[in-house]
Amino acid sequence: MMRILAAAAVLSLGAAPLGACGSSTTTQVDTATTGQELVDLKKAYDEGVITKSEYERKRKEILRK
After folding, report:
1. Which of 63, 58, 28 has the alpha carbon at shortest distance from 43?
2. Which has fewest Cβ within 10 Å: 30, 38, 50, 55?
3. Angle between the 52-64 and 34-46 helix axes, to the nearest 10 degrees?
4. How does pLDDT run across 45-58, given as a tens digit for each residue?
C-alpha cells in the first residue's frame, strides 16, 4: 500500500506545471499615437498631476519622437 501511495505522490509531482522554471521575457509595446500622448499629458497637467515645467519638458520629448 505504501508503494502505491509513494508512486502516486511521485506521479502527481511530475505532472505539476513548471511555470516557475526557466526564464521569461516581457515585451512592452507602445501603441499610443503622438496625439493621444499629448492629450493624456494635457489632461494630467489640467488635473494638477504634473507641474507646468514637467508638462513642457514631456511635451517637447513627445514631439521629438
Report:
1. 58
2. 30
3. 180
4. 999 999 999 999 99
